[in-house]
């Protein structure tokens, strides 16, 4: 089974308070077990398809973070 890859995130910014709904596009999302923003777990997420996830960003610090999907 191939590892998931993230190719796009929309929107590309949110508030430090969290709660932003983020659409993550990529590949191999079927069976995803976790979504994280800068190492902090998403508040919630839904796997819409093998290529799209909708996640709620957690509270965090200002600045760029990596978005990761784990299966």
**Mean pLDDT, rounded to whole units?**
96
What are the low-pLDDT stretches, counting only 5+ consecutive residues below 50?
none
What's the total number of strands? Answer: 7
Helix content: under 10%
Radius of gyration: 11 Å
Helix-strand topology string = EEEEEEE
Alpha-beta classification:
mainly beta
Number of helices: 0
N→C terminal distance = 10 Å
Strand content: over 45%
Outline of the structure:
The protein is mainly beta and 71 residues long. 0% of the residues lie in helices and 48% in strands. The chain has no helices and seven strands.
Any overview of this molecule?
- The protein has 71 residues and is mainly beta.
- Helix content is 0%, strand content 48%.
- It contains no helices and seven strands.
- It has strands spanning 5-10, 21-27, 34-37, 40-41, 44-49, 52-56, 67-70.
- The strands form two sheets. The protein has a four-stranded antiparallel sheet with strand order 1-2-6-5, with no helix packed on it.
- A hairpin with a 2-residue loop joins strand 5 and strand 6 (52-56).
- The mean pLDDT is 96.
């Amino acid at each position: 089974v191939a590892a998931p890859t993230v190719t796009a995130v929309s929107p590309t910014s949110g508030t430090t308070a969290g709660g932003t709904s983020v659409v993550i596009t990529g590949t191999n999302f079927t069976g995803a077990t976790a979504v994280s923003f800068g190492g902090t777990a998403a508040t919630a997420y839904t796997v819409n398809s093998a290529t799209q996830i909708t996640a709620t960003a957690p509270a965090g610090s200002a600045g760029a973070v990596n978005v990761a999907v784990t299966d």
